[in-house]
């Protein structure tokens, strides 16, 4: 197992795009949000926890999670959102840690929107934050999800401020549409490899 690196960023920051560049460079990549969706459908402990907390309506007749229904339950309800996170996050963190143990490259990359908020950053060796100006993030999400400015702003307001996330970051990628991305990514790549050699 090599160095465990996390990559995170607020909605519309472009963290998934940056992650794909690392992946294209041959870095093993774990998409925590994608894996969480899979686990919510297939992990028996999560299934049991969600049914106990939210009722049988949380799953459709075919056994697939009713994402829309669940989203409506936790939207604007922090208590229910905390319950949801307490059921899902620990198991996703454990799943990601087991995946990292199997990797043989110099380092592996774990992408998650809530790496800091969930506390899973504590199991990582270093953290990359993808940063972008708020106005640009709003425009990106409006275009990507075909939603209103107010809806995107509401999502941003619910997230940890970028300035707070910077306190946890070892590296920052400035995805502002102006600064070239590849030189930043290659610099971080080299810095992480040097950490591996110096271990």
TrEMBL record:
Compartments reported by the entry: Cytoplasm
This protein's record includes keyword ATP-binding: yes
Swiss-Prot/TrEMBL keywords: ATP-binding, Coenzyme A biosynthesis, Cytoplasm, Kinase, Nucleotide-binding, Transferase
Gene3D superfamilies documented for this protein: P-loop containing nucleotide triphosphate hydrolases (3.40.50.300)
Sequence positions that bind ATP: 12-17
HAMAP family, A to Z: Dephospho_CoA_kinase (MF_00376)
Taxonomic path: Bacteria, Pseudomonadati, Bacteroidota, Sphingobacteriia, Sphingobacteriales
Protein name, as recorded: Dephospho-CoA kinase
Originating organism: Sphingobacterium tabacisoli
Pathway: Cofactor biosynthesis; coenzyme A biosynthesis; CoA from (R)-pantothenate: step 5/5
GO MF term list: dephospho-CoA kinase activity
CDD domains the record matches: DPCK
